[in-house]
Design brief:
Elements: E1 4-7, E2 10-13, E3 18-24, E4 33-39, E5 46-51, E6 57-59, E7 67-72, E8 77-82, E9 91-98, E10 107-108, E11 112-117
Parallel strand pairs: 2-11
Antiparallel strand pairs: 1-3, 3-8, 4-5, 4-9, 5-6, 7-8, 9-10, 9-11
Length: 118
């Protein structure tokens, strides 16, 4: 069982920066693929960024060049640095983990709200 706890959301203005953190339980964090998803009201959940166990990262097109996902295996934590925030980035952001025995992200955090005012 893996528990994920996000933190760092809040209300910011357009152009501001914010960093989200996701702390994971377990002793095998380095073996989890990690990702950040978001869901805005009335929209489907989308994957924003992911980072593999080999620290290979991918981003959805709308955040490329603005967001950066990193991981610290010593702290069992994954981060999402968000720069140049826009109102369309407003959403609940979720941290997710995919363990080695799963093809899908099988553990999720409770979510943290990010609101960007114009």
């Amino acid at each position: 069982q893996v528990q994920l706890v996000e933190s760092g959301g809040g209300l910011v203005q357009t152009g501001d920066s914010l960093i989200l953190s996701c702390a994971a339980s377990g002793r095998t964090f380095s073996r989890y693929a990690m990702a950040w998803f978001r869901q805005a009201p009335g929209k489907e959940r989308e994957r924003v960024a992911r980072i593999s166990t080999l620290v290979i990262t991918t981003y959805t097109e709308s955040v490329k060049g603005r967001f950066n996902i990193t991981r610290d295996n010593a702290k069992n934590t994954v981060y999402l640095q968000m720069n140049s925030l826009r109102p369309e980035d407003t959403a609940v952001y979720y941290c997710a983990a995919r363990t080695m025995d799963s093809r899908e992200y099988n553990y999720w955090g409770q979510g943290t709200q990010v609101t960007v005012s114009s």
